[in-house]
TrEMBL record:
NCBIfam families: PRK09542.1. The lineage of its organism: Bacteria, Bacillati, Actinomycetota, Actinomycetes, Nakamurellales. Residues 398-471 form the Alpha-D-phosphohexomutase C-terminal domain. This is Phosphomannomutase/phosphoglucomutase. GO terms for molecular function: intramolecular phosphotransferase activity; metal ion binding. It comes from Nakamurella aerolata.
Amino acid sequence: MSRPDPAPQAGADHPLREIVKAYDIRGLVGSQLTADTCRALGLAFGRFVSGQAAPLPDGIAPATSVVIAHDMRESSPELSGAFAEGVTAAGVDVVAAGLASTDMLYFASGELNLPGAMFTASHNPASYNGIKTCLAGAVPISLDTGLAGIRDEAIATLTGTGPAVAEVPGSVSERDLRGDYATFLRKLVDLSGIRPLHLVIDAGNGMAGYTVPAVLDGLPLRIDPLYFDLDGSFPNHEANPLDPANLVDLQARVREVGADLGLAFDGDADRCFVVDENGDPVSPSAITALVAVRELEKAPGASILHNLITSRAVPEIVTEHGGAAVRTRVGHSYIKAEMARTGAVFGGEHSAHYYFADFFRADTGMLAAMHVLAALGSQDRPLSELAAEYERYSASGEINSTVTDTAAVLERIRAWAAERGADVDELDGLTVTLPDGSWVNVRPSNTEPLLRLNAEAADPEALAALRDEVLAIIRR
């Protein structure tokens, strides 16, 4: 006798299933993300981190308090407040940190040893908001390590089948952590003795406009601020420096005023992009290598992580300076897990996320920027010459292609690689390394029908040929 079909999963088509991603929560305010949704998520989060809902990961103790912060988006105070109501309904106390960058929330989680929730949609447009969560010590939470259970319990609450609230609710206390955050960073990188530098900083109307003055004021720096007013409608440009269009104003100002360099932060200020005195971008791979060398001076022989899309110059330079280069998948949860496993002191990604062991293994654009300022200010050459030491190859940047049959495209690329006598690995998508050392990585998007291509070769001409050859295979 055949078995009956399994019952459909409760809330299988609930909107929360669309906006709870692999590592965070992000959706349209009002339709996908509402105060009621955040209240239910807060209840589920409070129950999870306090050990009421499911077993916590190994080594994580149940928490009695949670720290919550938010960015400058118009919806953030209401949504974070509703989330706090949910957390206290679980019988868990809340430390309300108010305005913060994402790395300030990670600092709070690490320094206070509390789970945390940061309300931000990072570089997404003003109509979006979201939540980045972590366990005590800034340990990331992914779908595999708790986010799926939080989502499912929140859906149960929203559909009337959720758990009961605690008999004794938690309390809320407020705490301003900006000064503590600034002091902590300034102890990690001492800028007091560098030569005077003139820099332009584009905050993109995001949280860097709040954190930069606290961290960098009083140092031998002349700062020319661009778009420091906190404005979640992003009236000047999107707070996404990964898009070259959003660097144009910074580049023009650097050239206009003759600055030594420019820095651009994304909306929640956890990523930082750098341009030199000519306004030319310095690749995140070069910044990764520069910071890695500085970290190896403090910890000779240490491990340095780099994701598989950073330039091959990164592992070369790490090895030349006595470090152990460790290649990882793309994504902060993978890098943070590898940092814990390997004892790495630093890790960098092609997307300008930089992770530091002495910053709770969390990513911070501000600390990376301070390392760049320290390196530049400790010698007399311009940044273009300094950065040239770490730029060895030509890179394509990420190129997206819409595809209908990902598996078929990847199979065509495997066949092409075999014809070229190339090495292929599948750590994250397909990485094809050709006999001359050039390489191409093709990764499927987790959320869209896209393939993402990154390529690198010895010079611009070789890069163009490789890029066009692989794009023709993808798009035919």
